[in-house]
Design brief:
The protein is an alpha+beta fold. The protein has helices at residues 27-38, 43-49, 102-115, 173-192, 202-209, 251-263, and strands at 4-16, 20-21, 70-74, 81-82, 88-95, 124-137, 147-158, 161-162, 165-166, 213-227, 234-249, 276-279.
Length: 281
Amino acid sequence: MAPQLRYLDLEFELQPRRSLVWPVMRRGIMLRGILGVALRSGALRQSLFSPVAMPEQQRLRGNRDRVRPFVVAPALVGPGVVEPGDVALFVLRLFGKASGVGNEVAHLIHREAERGIGVDRVPCTAQVSATVAGALDLGWDRKAPARADARITFLSPVELKEGGLPVKDAREVLPALVKRARDRVSGLYHLYEDGPALDWDFAAIGAEAEQGRVQDANLRRVSEVRTSSRTGQTHALEGWLGHLDCSGLTPAAMHMLDCALITHVGKHATFGQGRIRISQP
């Protein structure tokens, strides 16, 4: 049986007590902010949210963007202001060991939401309406033929790096997307699961990422700066939006992209960035 990466979706309903400014581009980072405050201290932060790579995990050592075991996924539609009596929806997805502490995390989010969200510190009720558990199989049929066609739609800004620098050329997006999905899934598994090490050939997957062909690229870069009212830190919310029509994706490349549907991919994935959809062109 192939190694698996477990995950747990906590589906939240957020109900503000007064008008809550809720812009699409900033929803994820607003939610990430209250989660960060909730986990500022305590055993959960130390054991699950501040991991230390073991010496044998060479690919993770020195990683400045350390993989965290969660992503937030707010609804991508809906009004930019949520009024009292209305509901905003979001999902918090926990990975690996973190999937076992869903109740504790939900309690912390409920507490911080009551203290206020956004610049105006709007008190909100955050209740879990449903939970969904799942697992990603991290093996694939290495003899399967390449999938001929796929459309990859970037639902939220996807910021990718190659060689430590942001990818600015649309022609370089596809291989970078596959490689960063590979690295993110591997990091989540090795930091937050206790199974055997993955037997992936990282160099071979990277080489296969270069084999995919982009038939049509309808992409644009977006950029917005957000300053946290809690910490004063500035975050650049930027990346690619649009879609790629691709062909010639190998089984390994396709598997990495399928995993990224769940894990998100690229910089600030925990903020709700890096969300993709795969369909036929």
